[in-house]
Design a protein that fits this description.
CATH topology of the largest domain: Rossmann fold
Number of domains: 3
Helix content: 10-25%
Strand content: 25-35%
CATH architecture of the largest domain: 3-Layer(aba) Sandwich
Distance between the termini: 20 Å
Strand order of the largest sheet: 11-10-13-8-9-12
Largest sheet: 6 strands, antiparallel
Bound molecules: FE2/S2 (inorganic) cluster
CATH superfamily of the largest domain: Nucleotide-binding domain of ferredoxin-NADP reductase (FNR) module
Length: about 350
């Protein structure tokens, strides 16, 4: 076995990937801003098209890469060892939207507010202020003093002065307990930023479906606000799934946006409650009921694995192309990882 040459098409660079090294590790070591998140086959952020050659895929989550996607020639760069000379391109690299290289930066917590009984809004200011470059829908690895780093999506538009995160309290979760019980304005935060490939494709011309579960509303808020600010006039349908009324937040904010932008609709759906005011049942069932043809649409989905999985099943059955699905799976790090498949 010898090192293999891998052509990273979006940047037009060929790399030597050493024996036992993944394509993602080699690309990052070479300073290439290859989209990534978990680096462990769980999030799908490094999903790429294998244009030529052969790779061996290590274990990964079925949410990050489905069997159909594998059969269709997609791989996860963080799990792929090249067996021959290979050419790859990360998904979205041909759609003309900028992806910004990740970097480390330090910020200061400026605000903490309760959004619901278990979700806090945390605002962080950095030296770069409004010049921080990221794409709406991306996330950061955020660490606060003395607790493990966790991934949280930015809820604000790129270009805003600070970064806004929605952090849910996870039972037994060291980091989220710290945020809810001890974090205060003035505390330091370190960010690896920006990460993830589930960001707004601004050049897409067609309708947009957004499905958020719980604090998955954060990246969806960034995507919707950015799309509207850029004058996107195609229909944008946002479905927000939570358990009960006490889990809803920013409902007034989205209703006000929908009043100002006639192409936006916002539908909260409660899964565990009776309600005369809101729709009930699984949020993905509401999508299935309302939208019969998703051919030519883009879908942005953020939430727990079971919701993302159901959203994929339903939207693909409704004609959505796999390349038009951009999903952000929220894992709970303190909980056991989701089952893995043999890659
Ligand atoms: S970075 Fe490859 S699946 Fe998360």
């Amino acid at each position: 076995m010898t090192a293999k040459l891998v052509d990273i098409r979006p940047v037009g660079t060929s790399l030597e990937v050493q024996v036992g090294q993944t394509i993602l590790d080699a690309a990052l070591a070479a300073g290439i801003a290859y989209p990534h998140g978990c680096k462990s086959g769980r999030c799908g952020a490094c999903k790429s098209r294998l244009i030529g050659g052969e790779v061996e895929l290590f274990q990964h989550s079925p949410f990050a890469l489905t069997d159909e996607e594998k059969a269709d020639g997609l791989i996860l760069a963080c799990r792929a060892l090249p067996l021959t000379a290979t050419a790859v391109a990360w998904l979205g690299s041909d759609d003309g939207d900028a992806v910004h290289p990740p970097r480390r930066l330090v910020g200061i917590v400026t605000n903490l507010d309760d959004l619901t009984h278990d979700i806090k809004l945390v605002r962080i200011a950095t030296q770069d202020g409004p010049h921080l470059r990221f794409a709406a829908g991306q996330f950061a690895q955020v660490s606060f003093d003395g607790v493990p780093a966790r991934s949280y999506s930015m809820a604000n538009r790129p270009g805003d002065a600070g970064l806004e995160f929605h952090i849910r309290r996870v039972p037994g979760g060291v980091t989220s307990q710290h945020v809810h019980n001890r974090l205060k304005p003035g505390d330091k935060a370190t960010l690896e930023f920006p990460l993830g490939s589930s960001y707004l494709r601004q050049h897409h011309s067609g309708s947009i479906l957004c499905v958020a579960g719980g604090s998955g509303l954060a990246p969806i808020k960034a995507i919707v606000e950015t799309a509207l600010a850029h004058g996107i006039t195609h229909p944008i349908h946002v479905y927000f799934g939570v358990r009960g009324e006490r889990d809803l937040y920013l409902v007034e904010h989205f209703h006000a946006l929908a009043k100002r932008h006639r192409n936006l609709s916002f539908t909260p759906v409660l899964s565990d409650a009776q309600s005369t005011q809101y729709r009930t049942g699984f949020v993905t069932r509401a999508v299935e009921k309302d939208l019969s043809d998703l051919g030519g649409w883009k879908a942005y989905v953020a939430g727990p694995p079971s919701m993302v999985d159901a959203a994929m099943e339903i939207t693909f059955a409704r004609g959505l192309r796999q390349d038009d699905m951009h999903a952000d799976v929220f894992f709970t790090p303190e909980v056991q990882p989701v089952p893995v498949t043999d890659g």
